[in-house]
Amino acid sequence: MVADLTPAAPDPQLAAEAAQFAREGFVHARGLLTPAEVEEIREIFARMHAEGVPGHYDPRQARDGVEDPNDPLFQYPRVMMPHRFSPRARHYMLHPKVAGRLRAFFGADPVATQSMFYFKPPGARGQALHQDQFYLLVEPGTCIAAWTAIDDTDAENGAMLVVPKTNDADIVCPSTADSRVSYTSHFVPVPPGLKAQLVPMKAGDTLFFNGSVIHGSGPNRSKTRFRRSFICHYASGNVRKISRFYHPLTRLDGTEYEVEPQTSGGACGEGWKGSLH
User: Fold this and answer.
1) Which of 190-204, 228-242, 257-271 has the lowest mean pLDDT?
2) Distance of CA 6 to CAs 9, 15, 146, 147, Å?
3) Strands 127-130 and 249-250, bridge-based pairing
4) DSSP of the chain, one letter per residue?
5) What is the value of pTM for the model shown?
6) Among candidates 173, 205, 175, which has minimal Cα distance to 26?
7) Cβ neighbours of residue 95 under 8 Å, at least 6 residues apart?
8) pLDDT tens, 190-234?
9) Are 92 and 37 in contact (CB under 8 A)?
10) R_g of the chain, CA atoms, integer Å
C-alpha cells in the first residue's frame, strides 16, 4: 500500500486568524477548550488555592505587593508558573490547539516561557494597560500571550481590553497606574487616534495577542462572579535572549532548556532588566 503524501489542505479559519493577527495584533479564538477542559482547569486551581503547593504556592501569602488581608487579591493571589509544579498545568500550557495557533502566528514552532492563573474574585482590582514585551524582553521578535477565559467575561467582571493595531507600536516606558483600580503600578496610555476595545469572552475562549499590543482590564465590579483565567506566554523557537525571570523555557515536547538571559533593558534603559509579571 502506497502512503498518501498529498499535503493537507490549508485550514481557512487558521489562515484568516493569522491574517487578522498580523493586521490587528490579536485574535479571539472561540471555544478553543472544551467545557470539560475548562472545568478541569477550574478544579486544579481551586484545589491549589485551598491546599497550596509546598515550596511553590501558599494561598495565605501576600502577592504582588498586596498586604491588606481584606483585599480580594490577598485572599485569592494569582498562581505564578504552575507548569513548574503541576503536570496538568504544563499540559494546558502546551495544549495542541494553542500550539497550532502559535505556529501560524509566529510562522515557526513556539516555546513556552510563562504560565499564570488569575482568580480575580468579586471586588478585585484590574490591571492597568501595559505591554508584555516590556517585561519579557524577548530577542529576536516579541512574545505572544494566550489568555484563556475560565469564566464568562464581560464589562462587569473585568473582561480584557486590547488596543487594536498596536502590534507594531514602540515599547513605552510606563507611567504610574491608579492603585485604586489597578493592582500593578505600570500604565501605558492609548496612542492618539486609537481606542481600547473590550473583548467579552465565553469560558474556553482564548485571546491571543503579541507583546507590543497594549492591553489590560478593569476591576471586577460583580458582587458574585469570579473572572478566572489561565494565561501563558510564548516566544518563537529561534529565541536567543529573554529576561532571566522566565528561565528555563519549555519546548512543545515538554523538555526544558536555557537561553541567554537578556542583559539589555530595552527601550527603557540599561537599568531595566525585566521582571516576572
Assistant:
1) 257-271
2) 9, 19, 32, 35
3) unpaired
4) -----PPPPP-HHHHHHHHHHHHHSEEEETT-S-HHHHHHHHHHHHHHHHH-BTTTB-TTS--TT---TTSHHHHSPPEE-GGGT-HHHHHHHT-HHHHHHHHHHHTS-EEEEEEEEE---TT--BEEEE-THHHH--BSS--EEEEEESS-B-TTTT-EEE-TT-TTPPPPPPEE--TTTBSSSEE-PPPTT---EEE-B-TT-EEEEETTS-EEE-----SS----EEEEEEEETT--EE-GGGPSEE-TTS-EE--EEP---GGG-TT------
5) 0.93
6) 205
7) 32, 33
8) 999 999 999 999 999 999 999 999 999 999 999 999 999 999 999
9) yes
10) 18
Is the preceding omega at residue 248 within 30 degrees of 0, hence cis?
A: yes
Residue 203 to residue 63: CA distance in whole angstroms: 25
Q: At 20, list the grid cell.
A: 487578522
- Selection from 28, 16, 40 nearest residue 201 by Cα: 28
Supply 33's cell numbers: 477548550
